[in-house]
Amino acid sequence: MERIAARPGAGRRLVLASLRGQRRLLAVSAVITLAAAVAAGAIPALVESAVDAADDGRRDDLVATMVWFGGVSLVGALANALQRWAVSVIGQNVLHDLRVQATHRLGALPLGDFERIRRGDLVARVTGDVERLEMVATNGLPFLAQASVSAVAAFAGLLIVSPPIALLALVVVPPMLAAGRWLLRRSSDVYPRARRVNGEMIGELAETLEGADTIRTFGRGRHRLASFGAVNTRSREANLDGMRMRVRFFGATTMIYSVMTGVVVVAAAALATDGRISTGVVAAAVIGTTRVFDPVADIVSYLDPIRSAQAALDRVATIAELGDDRSGRASAGADSATPGASPGEVRFDGVSFAYRRDETVIDDVTLRLAPGTTTAIVGDTGAGKSTLARLMTGLAVPGAGTVTVAGHDVAGLAPERRRRVIATVLQEGFCIDGTIADNLRLADADATDDELAAALDRTTGRWWRSLPEGLGTATGTGGRRLSNGQRQLVALARVAVLDPQVVVLDEATSLLDPDTEATVAEATERAFAGRTVVVIAHRRSTAARADRVLHVHDGRIIADGPPSEVLHHVDLEPTS
Fold it and tell me: What pTM does this model have?
């Protein structure tokens, strides 16, 4: 399985695109930020005025200054609260857009690409990485924005009160910047590696849980535990590297902050002793310096979670961009049908396909399936039977050539249009955790109970009516409350709800016992009469019911004709 390397700049591109749609909120945030800056910048001057008024015995001036101080503090507090709200909303909107784009892209990703990607890594990106982003968007970004405004405004106020002290305070900037640059450079390796290993660990855990029965059956628990232990160790080492980096960084910034604060306080005291500045200026300088250094220290300290979030953002945003440089061919006008094409007609014109560049699965296939016919595709395991089905249904995109259904290039059809033209039932019937009705409505959310019941009856018989709750029967997670056969019957009925022009049964009855398979096959013939049906068959009895049989070998069609001619040369399971 391939890992998807995070694309540098992917997060920045997506964030900028999202922010362009939030111009009004950004403008409101800018006004609030300006108000917060003015309030923060006025504090040192008000402190100076209050202390000097007290020293000189100017009671009325002191009272007036304190009133102003209270008003400015109130405005500043309100502006800071509104600023945090605005930045939080902007951050949540960006996250919303990110989730939507990533989920949409995963759903539309060609199956060949999807199957090359380790599922655990995808899960880690859309869960753990998004959670990291949400923490920063909810807490980090608002705090960072507030700290940045406070630092700049406090420095401006300090510059007005005492330019020498303000310039002295700037001395803290170079070492802080140096520490920040070191963190950015070091974390560019540490955090992406930590997020990547975390994805591997989730993948190992997910696969172990999904295959628990198989692992126990073959006694491979120790092997899986050792495999998980190895990736868990790599995760620990990656996280320890991050911890060591943070300890060094925060130790250095704390020392810089403490030393520079002391330097400013001593310098202010020395200037006051020489009579160059008043006591009020000293008080304002101390408070102003603190109001500059504290936010600067906070900003620098937040470089760590921000950098970690940036690594997570690039990983998630890479999913949102996935497929942009691949072989999807949807375009304006792609839904227009070829003139003269018949409903239900399927064509392959010089189609080739490979899951990997050096492994051709389908090799230059050209064929036509007539409307209203049933075609069985047979062949050895790995011959390319299921890949042909995936190409027909648009789950895989040809590397060369075109696949058309009813004259439409399947690769270019919009998903909603495509599922009305062609639908498939896979070997393992997929069920969500809900009722039978919920699972059938995956095909059509607006279908009535009567329509669902009719689809079940004409496709799979009346077996479901004997269930305690009928359509309301719970299927359980993954359909575990239903048997394999019942899950497949639900999957067949789901296609009947759509009533498409072409139906592909990708070994859809292979998990059923022979008697049930025969019953389902007869019901399917009735349900899809007049439709084009393609059956990926592993049993002779299934293929024998077809009008036409295609024998696939090494990605090529080596025999094509009626069952009586083709099946004589094919090794299939015996007729039930």
Answer: 0.55
